[in-house]
Hints:
The protein is mostly beta strands. It folds into 2 domains: 21-118, Immunoglobulins (Immunoglobulin-like, Sandwich), CATH 2.60.40; 122-196, Immunoglobulin-like. Helices cover 13% and strands 53% of the residues. The protein has 1 helix and 16 strands. It has one helix at 2-27, and strands spanning 29-35, 39-45, 52-56, 62-67, 72-78, 85-92, 96-104, 109-111, 117-120, 123-127, 130-135, 142-147, 153-159, 165-170, 177-185, 188-196. The strands form 4 sheets. Strands 3, 4, 6, 7, 8 and 9 form a 6-stranded antiparallel beta sheet that branches. A 4-stranded antiparallel beta sheet has the order 13-12-15-16, with no helix packed on it. A 3-stranded antiparallel beta sheet has the order 1-2-5, with no helix packed on it. Strand 10 (123-127) and strand 11 form a beta hairpin. The chain starts with a helix and ends with a strand.
Amino acid sequence: MKNQITKIVAAIILLASGFAATANEKDREITLKSENSKSVVLQMNNVKIGSEISLWNESGKLLYKDQVSDNSYSKVFNLNQLEKGELTLEVESAESLEVLPISVSEESAQFIKSEEKFYAKPVVSVADEMMRIFLRDDHSGYDMVIKDQLGQSVYKNKIDESQKGLQRYNVSKLSKGKYEIQFTADGRSFYHTIIIE
Length: 197
C-alpha cells in the first residue's frame, strides 16, 4: 500500500512539473529593441532560472552563451559588432527549447516572428517495468529511438502531434542497464537517460 501511494505521488509530481513549465513559458516575455542605431537590448521576463541563452550565426558558430540566474534577463549587444544577416537566439531549459531567428541590419535587429519555433521537451520516468513519457499539449511530433549501452537501437517509435499527455511503454523485455532515449523534431534532438534495474 505504501509503495502504491509513493507511485501515485511521483506521478502527480511528474504531471505537475509539466503543467507548471507550460504556464511559465506562456507568460514569458522576450523583447529585442534597437537603441540609437548603436545597440540592441535583449530583455526577458518570466524566464526559468538555469535556462541557457545562446546566440548563433548562420554557419552554426556560437557567438554568445550565458545562463539565467534570475527570473528576468537582459543583455546589451553593440550593433556594430553583431554579424549582419540572420542570427538565431536559443532559450533552452530542462523542459523546452525556443528558437528565435533574428534579422540584423546596419540600423536594427528584430525577431523574425514567422520563423520562431518552440519545442516542449518530453518528461521521462521509469518505475515498475514501465517507462512514462509526459508530452505537453504544445509539443511537436517526435521520432523516438531507444539505444542500449553499445549505441544499438532497441526500439523506435514516431510520436505525432496528436499524442498528448502521459504515454506508457512496457520496458520489461529490455535487459538491465543504462539506455539513452533520443527524441528528434525538425533536426533537433533531445536526450534522456534511463536505467533498467
